[in-house]
Design goal:
The structure is a homodimer.
Chain A: E1 3-5, H1 12-15, E2 21-27, E3 30-36, E4 39-43, E5 48-52, H2 58-66, E6 68-73, H3 79-87, H4 96-99, E7 104-105, E8 114-115, E9 120-127, H5 130-136, E10 138-149, E11 153-154, E12 157-158, E13 170-174, E14 177-186
Antiparallel strand pairs in A: 1-10, 2-3, 2-6, 4-5, 5-10, 6-9, 7-8, 9-10, 11-12, 13-14
């Protein structure tokens, strides 16, 4: 088992199935992590994503300051963590990450915090678009690094059909309710 | 069984779990349907969505002309239809919809074609944003009507845990490969 680099032009496959994600960012020594369902692929290459980040979110401020953020794809085992970082704000509780049992790590040459235990991670450079950010809370990022836990995603493919339920990714509905990713299906041509 | 109206402020729940969708539009008497994975909630109320629509897509032209489109959420039984409308273009084959066994219907007072057999439908009014459309192929729509098949979504909630696999929604990866929506999971607070 290991965390392996994912080619940037394959990184859209990490998000294509619409999983719930956690968004993280850092400015100086302040780190925050939030939950987000409204993160979506925008382009394959150069790989780009959109993320909707509410004006009340402290993580958004860190992204505006540092111009960088990470998107990580949690697994079912982390559902409680996702709810915790999604319902608490750093503004009210600066111990939010500790209280949510979030452990961070870094990839070499990238000063953006990543959450341990996820299935995959994408580090993005903000492409500033003030009108989208102010009018729609819509942020655009270019993916500049991508990695996956090779137990879940290997050589460009998810391995959900070989995984226990707690290792599958999450799809958020509302409240505390998710669905996990289900069975594979190959359509006929 | 019936197709029921979904309150607009609950319509985000139809897309929140990240399903693959089909996008449809009509101008004069020309109708087209395409597959799309990059459709995402942008706001809860007024309900808004983003959709990435390639410049080569004929459906995109119809949307630019009519300023309206529909997003529908197909079920696993329709996977072959999704691949067919996603790989053929109306430009090359004006019988694309017939060849893909797509049947259309309309809701009263909305002149936007909807695909039969889906789990849910959202009709959107384009919010024109030329810079996003030209630079990023990114379209923003305001949801002005939403409906669901009450076997799959009823009173604000998906019912996947009570459905057979072929009635669950689809999450696209690449090629002909999807995952269907899996088991429900309620996180602890």
């Amino acid at each position: 088992m290991g965390i392996c680099s994912v080619p940037l032009e394959k990184s859209y496959r990490l998000l294509n199935h619409g999983p719930t994600v956690m968004v993280s960012a850092k400015n100086d020594y302040i780190v925050d992590v939030m939950a987000a369902s409204w993160v979506c692929v925008l382009d394959i290459f150069p790989a780009k994503v959109t993320a909707v980040l509410d004006k009340k979110s402290f993580t958004r401020q860190l992204i505006e300051q540092s111009q960088k953020f990470a998107i990580q794809i949690p697994i079912a085992k982390q559902a409680e963590q996702v709810i915790k970082v999604g319902t608490q704000s750093y503004t009210d509780n600066s111990d939010k990450l500790t209280d949510s049992h979030i452990e961070l790590f870094y990839q070499d040459n990238f000063d953006v915090p990543l959450v341990k235990g996820c299935a995959a991670w994408l580090i993005c450079r903000l492409i500033p678009e003030q009108s989208n950010q102010q009018n729609y809370d819509l942020f655009i990022g270019e993916v500049i690094g991508a990695w996956a836990d090779d137990r879940m995603f290997d050589r460009g493919h998810w391995k959900f059909d070989q995984l226990s339920d707690e290792m599958k990714t999450l799809h958020y509905i509302a409240g505390n309710q998710f669905y996990i990713t289900g069975k594979g299906l190959i359509a006929r041509d």
